[in-house]
Design goal:
This protein has 81 residues and is an all-alpha fold. Helix content is 86%, strand content 0%. The protein has one domain.
Length: 81
Amino acid sequence: MDKNLARHLLMVALRSSGSLTDLLPLLKRHCRSDEYDRFKIAIARSAAEINIEILRKIFDEHPDLEAEMDGQIKKYGKFMH
């Protein structure tokens, strides 16, 4: 995969995972405890799948993108591309 396309896919995958994770406080406030626990587990599984199925494939092909992302997260607290 072209590196620019891989970088775009990486950003979309990270945003998707982040958007799901960002729902947790809202769900915690408005769902029953058992409902929240089910959603929390489902969101964790979804984020893990994104990591395994998308990010791993990108980083296997473009290890420099993983180093770039790690460096930006260490410096800025987030990936900024």
